[in-house]
Design goal:
Elements: H1 21-24, E1 29-30, E2 38-47, E3 51-60, E4 63-67, E5 79-82, E6 87-89, E7 95-100, E8 103-108, H2 112-138, H3 147-191, H4 196-271, H5 287-294, H6 302-310, H7 342-346, E9 364-368, H8 369-374, H9 381-387, H10 392-405, E10 416-418, E11 425-430, E12 436-444, E13 449-456, E14 460-472, E15 476-482, E16 484-489, E17 495-499, E18 502-506, E19 514-525, E20 531-536, E21 549-555, E22 561-568, E23 572-586, E24 592-598, E25 602-606, H11 622-627, H12 643-649, H13 653-677, H14 679-684, E26 691-695, E27 702-706, H15 710-716
Parallel strand pairs: 9-10
Antiparallel strand pairs: 1-2, 2-3, 2-8, 3-4, 4-5, 6-7, 7-8, 11-12, 12-13, 13-14, 14-15, 14-16, 15-18, 16-17, 17-19, 18-19, 19-20, 20-21, 21-22, 22-23, 23-24, 23-25, 26-27
Length: 726
């Protein structure tokens, strides 16, 4: 949107004329009878390159908002202007200009009639918004005056009304007195011998005077009736107000008692960690389940939610399992404001492998790549729900939503994670809290590769080996994760495999950094042969699609489509069950399109809101804030113990840069010594400690899989096999 000073030329027409009746003839109309909402298509001036662009406008509650498409109303508002302070102007037969607080919208309707409808709606909305603003300022005093004060105010008001009524009565008496005198004078005139024409006029005046007196008497009677009605209803209003206040006081007392009881129960449970499962259970809801409760009920199957509330057999969360868990941190030190010339570092690195570029911590975030890989588990509850699915195609929908959810943490995360040192590990043991435990190990340095294994007692296991290939292209940075992700469900034996898409960081040199995901994901169930094809649409400035859009179709072994997947990789994913499919028109590439008729969509995943002050904490999620939290009994190679990363988190960036150089030089020295000691080291490379290399029977690739031993070593605190890398 251009600055307010940059106005479009009055003669410029919309670059996209209305040519498709089916697409454009959506009249601006109220949402319902008596509604203040007004919606419709208008052309909005954007800039001199694109001119006027078609946008969907919504007028509601004194605010005018616009969107690129109607679908965007659910998640992305492009701009809003407050009409209570706006100036509405019309340039010609079709143009509307709105300006408020330095912001100006140049709008164009499809016709003069349409323009007039919008102007009328805007003027009415503006008048109402001004009234609401004034009323709010008038009512900005105490919300809860004392009851006695209310009575006094009401009595004073009624007394004032009675006084005014007395004034009206006095005026009525005067009107009656002077009216009677006027009628007598007119009667006397009638008795005089006047021409016939004058007599008729005097008679007409006499009749009008009589009507005037009758009307004034009726007005006084109506005022008296109003006062009596106000007196009678005031007692009802006062009783209703008093009742509502008493109810609120009782509610506040009840909430206070519940809070005290909850606190007592929590303390009691913490004081009795040995409670058995047969003891009284305190119901607890995981983060994912709480998110489900916030959704509209039609988006969720009752059979998924009912067991957690109606069947006692599923209530596994007891005081022992939930309340005594470790209290996790909710914030880290704010990011310091250090400036650095990026171009001075990057100008000699164009076309090189990013992992080979020595980078200061100024471009990092205080997490390692192993911890970022663990963040894929933020929405692990999707896999817990997938375990309960009876249909493999329905289960595929949850797996697909899980594969998309791993990108939601990247939308604001433009900083680079620390490259793990060879042999570095990271564990996340949340078996008691969340039902899973995760282990990562850096198994290769050039190219950098990390092996990851996750076991969940809910009934699934996930493993992957990801090699990061990245190239700096001058204006943007491409990050290509290589390697397959495996997911197996214990009870059904369903084994899913998929790969990640390409991540691109834009505006590396000039402008604000932003990240996009693009490419295709094919998820295959190697047992049932079900497939899901997901397409991550790359962002385009000229596209009318929803930004960060993801679409897909779930098919069975015969190629029959069962579900349509849709959403965005940064917000939510939903699935719609297909009830009928048919062939549609032919695309410009010559391919025939398929049209699906579906049931109402069901939301599978929705992103958690970021914590407060996230913009000053590297835009970390709630889970990310806990990943580098110090923990006891972890391996000496754990990322939490990496000194340069810890110094950076604490805001000591200069010390962190010195420590980072020391660790990297130490790693290079160890590699040179290993290569000098044995030729086998050159041939075999680094031998992972907790993983072993095997040929994947499904993909045919050499992959590192967990061989066991880590959690047993942790139990015994036997870390003799761990190398000294820090």
């Amino acid at each position: 949107t251009p600055s307010p000073q940059l106005s479009p030329p009055p003669a410029m027409a919309p670059p996209h004329p209305i040519h498709s009746p089916a697409q454009n003839r959506v009249p601006a109309a109220p949402a319902g009878p008596g509604s203040d909402t007004y919606k419709g298509w208008l052309f909005k001036w954007t800039n001199y390159l694109k001119g006027y662009q078609r946008r969907w406008f919504v007028l509601s509650n004194g605010l005018l908002s616009y969107y690129r498409t109607q679908a965007e109303m659910a998640h992305t508002c492009r701009g809003t202007i407050n009409l209570s302070t706006a100036h509405i102007d019309t340039e010609d037969s079709c143009n509307i200009v709105l300006s408020s607080g330095g912001r100006t919208y140049h709008l164009k309707a499809s016709s003069e009639v349409e323009r007039q409808r919008w102007v009328t709606a805007l003027e009415l909305a503006k008048a109402k918004a001004i009234r609401m603003r004034n009323n709010q300022s008038d009512d900005s005093g105490d919300e809860e005056p004392a009851s006695q004060s209310d009575k006094s105010e009401l009595h004073s008001t009624l007394k004032s009304l009675a006084s005014k009524l007395e004034d009206l009565s006095t005026c009525n008496d005067l009107i009656a007195k002077h009216g009677a005198a006027l009628q007598r004078s007119l009667s006397e005139l009638e008795n005089l011998k006047l021409p016939a024409e004058s007599g008729e006029k005097i008679k007409a005046v006499n009749e009008r005077a009589t009507l005037f007196r009758i009307t004034s008497n009726a007005m006084i009677n109506a005022c008296r009736d109003f006062l009596e009605l106000a007196e009678s209803h005031s007692r009802k209003w006062q009783r209703a107000l008093q009742y509502e206040r008493e109810q609120r006081i009782r509610l506040e007392e009840t909430i206070e008692q519940l809070a005290k009881q909850h606190n007592s129960l929590e303390q009691a449970c913490r004081g009795a960690p040995g409670l058995s499962s047969s003891s009284t259970a305190v119901s607890s809801t995981s983060k994912g389940e709480a998110s489900d409760e916030d959704e509209e009920t039609e988006y969720f199957d009752a059979m998924e939610d009912a067991p957690s509330t109606n069947q006692t057999g599923d209530k596994e969360s007891t005081c022992k399992d939930v309340l005594p868990k470790k209290r996790r941190r909710t914030r880290i030190p704010d990011k310091p404001n250090y400036s650095l010339n990026l171009w001075s570092i990057m100008k000699n690195c164009i076309g090189k492998e990013l992992s080979k570029i020595p980078m200061p911590v100024n471009f990092n975030e205080p997490l390692s790549m192993l911890q970022r890989l663990t963040e894929d588990l933020e929405y692990h509850e999707l896999l817990d729900k997938a375990v309960k699915c009876e249909s493999s195609t329905e289960q595929m929908c949850f797996v697909a939503a899980f594969s998309v959810s791993s990108y939601s943490t990247t939308v604001h995360r433009t900083a680079k994670p620390f490259n793990p040192l060879l042999g570095e590990t990271y564990e996340l043991d949340r078996l008691d809290e969340l039902g899973f435990r995760s282990l990562c190990e850096q198994v290769s340095h050039h190219p950098p590769a990390a092996a990851h294994h996750v076991y969940s007692k809910q009934g699934w296991t996930l493993w992957q080996e990801i090699t990061i290939a990245s190239k700096f292209r001058g204006k943007y940075l491409s990050i290509m994760p290589l390697g397959a992700i495996h997911l197996e469900f214990h009870s059904s034996g369903n084994h899913y495999v998929w790969r990640k898409v390409t991540s691109t960081v834009h505006n590396i040199i000039v402008g604000k950094l932003w990240i996009d995901q693009s490419g295709d994901i094919e998820i295959v169930n190697h047992k049932s042969k079900d497939k899901c094809q997901l397409k991550f649409t790359p962002y385009s400035y000229f596209s009318r699609d929803v930004p960060r859009k993801v679409t897909g179709v779930v098919t069975d072994a015969d190629g029959k489509a069962h579900y349509v997947m849709s959403g965005t990789w940064d917000e939510n994913m939903e699935c719609s069950k297909i009830v009928q499919s048919s062939h549609g028109s032919t695309s410009s590439e010559g391919k025939q399109k398929t049209v699906y008729q579906t049931l109402a969509p069901k939301v599978l995943w929705k992103k958690y809101p970021l914590p407060e002050n996230a913009e000053n904490m590297y835009f970390f999620s709630d889970l990310a804030l806990t990943l580098n939290e110090p923990e006891e009994r972890v391996a000496p190679t754990d990322s939490r113990l990496r000194p340069d990363q810890r110094l950076m988190e604490n805001g000591k960036w200069d010390e962190a840069n010195v420590e980072k150089q020391r660790l990297e030089e130490k790693q290079r020295a160890v590699r040179r010594r290993r290569e000098a000691e044995a030729v086998e080291a050159l041939e075999e490379g680094y031998i992972p400690l907790w993983f072993e290399r095997k040929v994947d029977p499904l993909t045919g690739e050499l992959i590192c899989v967990y061989k066991g031993g880590y959690w047993e070593a942790k139990e015994k605190q036997d870390w003799d096999l761990c190398p000294d890398i820090f």
